[in-house]
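Weekly modeling sync, notes
Attendees: AB, CL, MP (scribe)

Item 1: holo prediction request
CL wants a bound-state model with LQZAQKY5 before deciding which constructs to order. AB pointed out that an apo prediction alone won't tell us much about the pocket. Agreed to run with the ligand included and paste results into these notes for async review.

Input as submitted:
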Amino acid sequence: MISVEDALAHLFALAKPLATETIGLSEANGRVLANPVAATRDQPPFSASAMDGYAVAPEGVVPGASYTVIGEAAAGHAFDGSVSAGEAVRIFTGAPVPNGAGHVVIQEDVDRTDQIITVSDRLGRGTNIRPSGGDFKVGQTIESPKILRPNDIALLAAMNVAEVTVTRKPKVAIMATGDELVMPGEAPGPDQIIASNSFGLQAMLRDAGCEARLLPIARDSKSSLKTAFSLVDDADLVITIGGASVGDHDLVGDVAQDLGMQRSFYKIAMRPGKPLMAGKLANGAMMIGLPGNPVSAMVCGQVFVNPVVRTMLGLKDALPEQQTAELAHDLAPNGPRQHYMRARVDNEKISVFANQDSSLLTVLSSANALLVAPPNSEAMPKGTAVRYIPI
Ligand SMILES: Nc1nc2c(c(=O)[nH]1)N[C@H]1C(S)=C(S)[C@@H](COP(=O)(O)OP(=O)(O)OC[C@H]3O[C@@H](n4cnc5c(N)ncnc54)[C@H](O)[C@@H]3O)O[C@H]1N2
Ligand code: MOO
């Protein structure tokens, strides 16, 4: 058995960043920006009015001052001329501020009679003008690598960037294995259960930015497993679930090796997730063989599969983010395996669930954290600061 850290080092050695592709902005949300992008213009490209009102010269704007309205500027329609002392241009939000003007008096702060406006006692502070380039200037960059979120997409669009270069999505094939499994919606026999963690992992992988597809469930026979492996096509990563332990029907490792898998490691000193294996398949795809217990598979997804995917996507911080919280209760000593305990963090205090059996999806679904108890850690009293992974 190797440590979690060693297992991660082996996985990072197997996982290589994928090639890039250029896509339209509408497709870019959630994708990983591969190259820095520079603004091709200033925003705003001119001094712009922030309010509806009257643009006047900046000097002498005081209650009682009067101006003659000489024209209009609206968004997309600049005033063709300039403003002199005693003159005002009717202006609307987003319009270019005319030459000579340096102050927009909002319309609520003036009294208007025909073409004459008079500044009232209500005059507020500020010029109500957004300076040219006040948001960004030509050449300002968005750094990479970066997962693009809706706010970034809006910024890229404003920068007049219509296409971006992103890392291509990792293609992942997920293979559930076991004679006992049927698909959700099917009628299970009396000794059957529903394949669950394959769906959980598919969701997790899609969230992480992958194209993740489910292979047909492989039965506990070498021929069925071989058939399922023959369907991995051009996957970058093959995830098997179950059949990883030492029982007579746990054949995944043997079959993968028969098919030319070069094993990197097998078994990790962790709970849950001990019988995890990883290696490289004959076609060059990376393989991670997850244990079948539903919680084990999902926890290994968080601890190992997501970091592998983030590495393939070219992201720098591949490891799951860890945070600290105070124990809400005493914690018993840990055994020799690093324990990822299903827990809840509420108001910065963390409590672990009483039952940590690796089959309990109800517990996992109620959890929002995995408390990381290091190997052989001693008993910890309530109030001790502990590390956890938010989930
Ligand atoms: N004698 C030993 N027995 C076991 C050991 C051991 O060291 N010595 N390790 C235990 C540990 S730890 C784990 S974890 C499990 C993992 O075993 P496998 O990876 O071989 O998983 P299976 O036996 O195929 O399944 C375990 C459990 O999970 C259910 N399962 C499997 N796949 C799915 C799926 N896609 N969706 C939902 N549930 C699934 C399966 O029905 C079993 O109940 O081995 C221990 N045994
Ligand atoms: O370590 Mo297993 O992964 O008990 O569930």
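Recorded for review: Helices lie at 4-14, 150-158, 197-207, 222-229, 252-258, 294-312, 361-366.
Action items: CL to compare against the apo run; MP to circulate these notes.
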